[in-house]
Design brief:
The longest helix has 30 residues. It contains 8 helices and 10 strands. The radius of gyration is 17 Å and the shape is globular. By secondary structure, it is α+β, with helices and mostly antiparallel strands. Strand 7 and strand 8 form a beta hairpin.
Length: 281
C-alpha cells in the first residue's frame, strides 16, 4: 500500500503518552474487538449494553519508532476514509458525512463504551463516535493471526470506520436496540449481519482508495482477504481447538467475510452491502 508522504488526519486523539489526553493533528494515524476462545478477532460493538463512563487514560511503555510509524500510517488511512466517505455520502446517499475521531492508546484506556486494552483490540464506540486502537494490535494480527501487511492493517481501520458509517446511517443504533429485545442466538445473528456489512463497506472504501489515490499495490487485496479469512468465526474456533458452533457466531465465517468484502470492492456501492435483506449471507 502506497501511503508515505500523504496527508494525515486531524481527527486523531493521541493518548499514548502519560500525562493525559493530547489532541494530535495528523501525526498518527471493528463493533469492538473482544477476546473469544483462544484468539482475538474483530468483535461487535457493546455500547448499547455497557456504560462505564469516563475517559481516564493509562499509558504504558515508551513510544517507539515503530509505534510512530504505525500511528502515521493510521493517520493517512483515516484521512483516506474521510475523503472517500464524504464523497460516497454525497453521491450515493445525498447526505453529509461527519467523520469519526480515532483514539490512539498504548496499554489501556477508557471510553463511554467501557475499557480497552492492547489485548482486547480495536473497537468503535458510537456513544462518542470514536474508534479506539492500540497499534500493537497490528503486531498481534501478524504474529498470532497470520494476517500481516500494510493493507491488512488498513482493513482494520476501514472496518472500524465502517461501523461509524453504520452509525451515521442509523443502522447500528437500530440493530443494538433490537439485540436487547431478542434471544442470544437472534442477537448473534444480527451481529453477524452488522459485521459482514462492515466488511462490505470496507470493500467499498478499498475500491475508492484505488481509484482516487492509486494507493493499492499488487497483493494488497489478497492481504485484506487473508485478514478476513483469519478472523472468521469458524476459523477462530477451529484454530482454538474448539468444535465449530455456528449458533455462537457473531462475525460470520471466513468465506462470508471474504465474500462481502469482495462484494463491496467489486460494486463500490453502499446499496450492495445490504446484509439485512438477504437470506444468502
Amino acid at each position: 500500500m502506497k501511503w508515505q508522504g500523504r496527508r494525515g488526519s486531524n481527527n486523531i486523539e493521541d493518548r499514548r503518552r502519560s500525562g493525559g489526553v493530547r489532541k494530535a493533528g495528523g501525526i498518527g494515524g471493528l463493533a469492538g474487538v473482544l477476546i473469544l476462545l483462544a484468539g482475538m478477532y474483530f468483535g461487535f460493538d457493546t455500547s448499547g449494553f455497557v456504560d462505564l463512563g469516563g475517559t481516564q487514560v493509562q499509558s504504558s511503555g515508551e513510544i517507539t519508532e515503530a509505534d510512530e510509524r504505525a500511528a502515521q500510517f493510521v493517520s493517512v488511512t483515516l484521512a483516506d476514509t474521510e475523503e472517500i466517505w464524504a464523497e460516497v455520502f454525497q453521491t450515493q446517499i445525498g447526505e453529509t458525512y461527519a467523520a469519526p475521531t480515532l483514539v490512539l492508546f498504548k496499554g489501556a484506556t477508557q471510553s463511554p463504551c467501557g475499557g480497552a486494552t492492547a489485548q482486547s483490540g480495536p473497537f468503535y464506540c458510537p456513544a462518542d463516535s470514536k474508534a479506539y486502537l492500540d497499534t500493537d494490535f497490528f503486531v498481534t494480527m501478524e504474529r498470532q493471526l497470520g494476517a500481516g501487511g500494510d493493507f491488512a492493517a488498513a482493513y482494520v481501520v476501514a472496518h472500524e470506520v465502517a461501523h461509524h458509517v453504520q452509525n451515521e446511517l442509523g443502522i447500528l443504533g437500530q440493530a443494538n436496540r433490537i439485540r436487547q429485545q431478542v434471544s442470544e442466538v437472534e442477537s448473534n445473528a444480527i451481529s453477524v449481519r452488522l459485521e459482514l456489512q462492515a466488511d462490505c463497506l470496507s470493500g467499498v472504501w478499498a475500491r475508492y482508495a484505488q481509484e482516487r489515490f492509486n494507493s493499492l499495490e499488487r497483493g494488497d487485496i489478497a492481504e485484506a482477504m487473508n485478514a478476513a479469512a483469519q478472523i472468521g468465526d469458524d476459523t477462530l474456533q477451529r484454530n482454538a481447538g474448539r468444535t465449530v458452533q455456528p449458533h455462537t457466531f457473531e462475525h460470520g465465517t471466513s468465506a462470508q467475510r471474504q465474500r462481502w468484502f469482495q462484494t463491496g470492492y467489486d460494486t463500490a456501492q453502499v446499496a450492495a452491502c445490504d446484509t439485512f435483506s438477504t437470506n444468502d449471507l
